[in-house]
Amino acid sequence: MENIIKPKTMIGTVVSDKMDKTIVVAVEKTKMHPLYRKTYKKVIKYKAHDEKNECKNGDVVRIIASRPFSKEVVWRLDEILTKAVAVDVKPEEVE
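-> structure tokens emitted (95 positions)
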């Protein structure tokens, strides 16, 4: 049997897509306080490589660990799980 190492994956929400070929993904983790045993949420932001610039704000994506693309970008986009819904509102409708 072969020892195949799977790369680490995470699921999060895109919070910024302003950079070229790079997205910022917010991953929410739940942790337990070591003394008080209360669970709390922690949001960590990761920069991921998006080769085709196909992600937009609000998309739910899966990122996967990869080789370093730059100093901070060591994740890459694996797949888009859910696309964000964009609502078009005309100025005359807002009154």
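The chain has a mean pLDDT of 93.
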